[in-house]
Amino acid sequence: MIRAFLKKVGLLSDNQEQSPLIIPRKKHGISRKDISENALKVLYRLNKHGYGAYLVGGGVRDLLLGLHPKDFDVATDATPDEVRRIFKNCRLIGRRFRLAHVYFGHDIVEVATFRGKDQTSNEALAHSEKGMILRDNVYGTIKEDVWRRDFTINALYYNIKDFSVVDYVGGYADLKAKKLRIIGSPKERYREDPVRMLRAIRFACKVGFEIPKELSAPMKELKELISHVSSARLFEEMMKMFHSGAAKLAYENLLQQDLFDALFPATAKALGQTTYPTHALLTTVFENTDKRIKEHKTVTPAFIVAALLWHPICLHAQKYVDEGMTVYMARMKAIEDMLREQIKLISMPKRIVQGARDIWLLQMRLGKRQGKRALQLIAEPRFRAAFDFLEVRAHCGEPVKDLATWWKTFIDANEEQRRIMIKALGGKKTRRKPKRKKAPQEES
Questions:
Q1: Looking at the domain assignment, is residue 44 inside a domain?
Q2: Where among 162, 184, 206 does a domain terminate?
Q3: Does the annotation mark 150 as catalytic?
Q4: Cys bridge to 278: 31, 53, 63, 270, which one at CB 3.0-4.6 A?
């Protein structure tokens, strides 16, 4: 069925069905110097043991586009157990897709066995009632594996044996033409795995391609399926999207394709109000994130989470304030409410949740600078992230500009200047309790 569709839309000719397009080393431009040393070790060793070994997916795509991939995935005809026998530094993971992870210190090379046709037992391949693939451990050949992949530009195989690129579906031509195409019917492929809708946006934004109408049209109809994806997978996909160097464009596309509210419903609701500049805040944070990634600087996931949920927290807290709760307690309760609801959709590691919580709580403390408080705050581990967040809020129009300016001056000041700044704030001075006089001892 997939091949028939590809023929219909001109992605597959009779010749392509019989044999793939082989792009030799001298034409495609991929150099082993640009491939990680550990990925090459895995490829060479698999090949040495008589197995086919290929780089596949985003690594090949990015190399062909002149980008620098972070990860290199390997595809092989060796089964996961056979891979484990070859590599002592290997662990098998996953139930949905059985994968081998080969460890080199902190570096992991992911090895997947070619997937085969789906005409097999329910134990190896399982679908949900909505058509989602729940388990897919049917092994096959490279010719079968290619039809199980999602986009043509991700279905290119770099063969370590002769350094050629193998193309069964016209992905090489699509890369050159800057076209994003799905292998098969978009509706069916989205039903099998709703994350493909998010991946389409991520890939298009990362490499600067347009999302064609045939890919975008079914998204609104099928976005409800996203809620059936595991919350851990959605978190992983969101982190990839917002750390791709095109976070701002991805955010805009999520809104345009009407998928944002399926991922962050409370934030989507906040975008529709005028009390807080939610869109400006998110746009600024994503712009800054893209800039930091382009400059090879670190990006804090907790900061992105803090930005996504900050205004929903503020709006939710106001309801508690209206009921008579103090601002501090209202914010505390709103934080827990928002986190609890968001984690149902997109789970987050505890360290990221705690990081976001620290940034939010420090927003309330940054206004209290009298006495020793300013010096205590500046020593907090999350102070810098909290201050950066305060500056973003000020930049976007929240009424904290004077506070952000004060803290910036305080950070740059020397010890004496800081003392003068704190003194200028005024406030109540702590009254010292008079020392209790010792009772005079009677002379004996």
A1: yes
A2: 184
A3: yes
A4: 270
